[in-house]
Specification:
The protein is elongated, with a radius of gyration of 26 Å. The strands form three sheets. Strands 1, 2, 3, 4, 5, 6, 7 and 8 form an eight-stranded mixed β-sheet that branches. It has an eight-stranded parallel β-sheet with strand order 11-10-9-18-17-16-15-14. Helices cover 37% and strands 20% of the residues. The chain folds into two domains: 120 residues, Chitobiase/beta-hexosaminidase domain 2-like (Chitobiase, domain 2), CATH 3.30.379; 321 residues, Alpha-Beta Barrel (TIM Barrel). It is of the alpha/beta class. The chain is built from 19 helices and 18 strands. The two termini are 36 Å apart. The relative contact order is 0.12.
Amino acid sequence: MITGRLSCDVLLYKMVSSVNTGIFFLLVQLMICSSRNLHATINPTIGAPWPMPQKYTPTGNVYQIEPSSFRFEATGETCDILTSAFARYKQIIFGTTLKFQPDHGADNGNALAIASVKVKSECDKFPSLESDESYDLVVSASGITINANEVWGALRGLETFSQIIVRRSLQYFINGTTVTDFPRFQHRGMLIDTSRHFLSVDVIKEHIEAMAQNKFNVLHWHIVDDPSFPYTSAAFPEMSEKGSYPGAGHIYTASNVLDIIGFARMRGIRVIPEFDTPGHTQSWGKGIPDLLTKCYSKGVFDGSYGPVDPSKNTTYTFLETFFGDVANTFPDQYIHLGGDEVSFGCWQSNPDITTFMSKMSFGTSYSKLEQYYMQSLLNIIGKKLNKGYLIWQEVIDNGAMVQPDTVVEVWKGGYEEELAKVTKLGYKTLLSSCWYLNYISYGDDWRKYYACDPQQFNGTDAQKKLIIGGETCMWGEFVDNTNLIARFWPRAAAVGERLWSDMSVKNTAEAAPRLEEHRCRMVSRGFAAEPVNGPGYCPEEYTKF
């Protein structure tokens, strides 16, 4: 492959030094290189929001904002979430707003000093699937107002307000603007994986801050898996003591978890933990003897272990206690229970499992055994702990009976057919299949993420209403503190706009200049957001310190 300036220089050298062989091919390649090197940069917009609001009407009127006198004012209900947001956004706006040199219109001489924020309803303690994130924003000569039914909408309005302010030299300006906005989908999630590589609390918080500034509202925390068990269970502390990576600093204490939940709450973000079983549980077995299935070879235990053993009553006693602790720790109504990628080989080898299969009249259908396990777990979560649950699509594919409010996450290929099947069964559904951002590629791959739409499948209007959103996933095989932010951002912003904005907002040519600005906006705010549109620059380049 020919990439970059150096390769073109090498081609030119070859063409000059070897005129007798392949000159036509080299000339063609040189033309390609020249075209690539002369690729025009994308000119960013100035003061345009991301994601695009449902209704966004800027005017030609420009008003100045004076940092020293500007303040936010709550004119309705207030709470710690709102007062904290006022302080945070004053720092975001006046501490890091992009320094644009081009003119931003004619200043009419009127300085706006107060942004009035009115929340109609008393603040909820935590965000939920039913939270109202709608808001209205008006900037005019008479002032700045943000009106929202709930505090969560006020947070989203504050973010939009912060984005439409621009700085020229040491002065701040804003266009007269009217915004009416609400999310297209209720669930706009991002999965992080802290088992394959540990992520520090500070990096998780930085990511949550980036989520809020892109209007995501769910942190799907895939907290444990086969490689390690960093979650500290109050009921079973030996699980993290024996199942986490060795050395200090590879566990999340109870205070760490509460700190992350509280930080997310202040930004209107739900934290949904995932504890995936019966597979993906090798780290669980290090702290809980006899939880996992013993694997046999030629009738003899071979020293290895497989999925959770569904044949033992002690398994379900443990699960009820363990998930009871999880339910008390995480305030969200939902827990993600996984249920994907269960290998049957170890179950097939185990004589006790074979005896149990016969007793239950399962024959040789290990899918029925998996269904039995998942059904037992779902009953514990739904009936005994009164929690809702999210599951990967395999649980439905394998025929388990689930609660009516179950949320099914579709992650495999052929997702259009799966979305049609799951919604036909009447379940709320999420899509993540096309948004696995841990798969990286050269070039502006944000466009393919932008093009994927959760409602593009063959179904009725009623089925499509059951699509409550989607998630972008960052599996951690090759991701840790060093690259989580840059690998997510701003590529994930493309997914954020798809899940927030109207379905009609889908033109990548129109989106590219706004994304270019938004990427630089994130850089100016301290995020290591990588380039996504090819050659270019930011007025304020990223510096780590």
